[in-house]
Design brief:
It is a single chain. By secondary structure, this protein is an all-alpha fold. It is 66% helix and 0% strand. The protein is built from 4 helices and no strands. The protein has helices at residues 8-29, 34-51, 59-73, 82-99. The protein is elongated.
Length: 111
């Protein structure tokens, strides 16, 4: 049985795959085929995160993943590294919440 949560090597691999998808998508956008990579990347990362027990039912996670999916399907906007940003955010947020339960990297404690 697989342990839930992300290990450091899995996070590194996810970010590397996201960089690959973003680079491939930037190249294929020149011939108007970048949207195809976006769909494949969305399915890949959805299954990958779900297999590690990470749910997208929290609004911030849903917004990050959905925003990247929409940005990568729109022509010429798909040149931006949205997958790398979304995967980095989602993976690092889940890792921080494993180490410090209840921690949120988007909240500021400055007053």
């Amino acid at each position: 049985m697989q342990e839930k949560g992300l290990k450091n090597t899995t996070i590194s691999l996810m970010i590397a795959v996201a960089l690959f998808f973003d680079a491939l998508q930037a190249l294929l956008t020149l011939i108007f085929m970048g949207w195809l990579v976006g769909i494949f990347a969305a399915l890949t990362f959805y299954v990958w995160f779900k297999s590690h027990g990470i749910s997208f039912m929290k609004p911030k996670r849903l917004f990050a993943f959905g925003g990247a999916t929409i940005a990568e399907v729109i022509p010429f906007l798909s040149v931006l590294p949205a997958w790398t940003a979304a995967v980095s955010y989602l993976a690092l947020q889940s890792k921080i919440q494993e180490v410090i339960p209840g921690a949120d990297i988007t909240k500021s404690n400055l007053k």
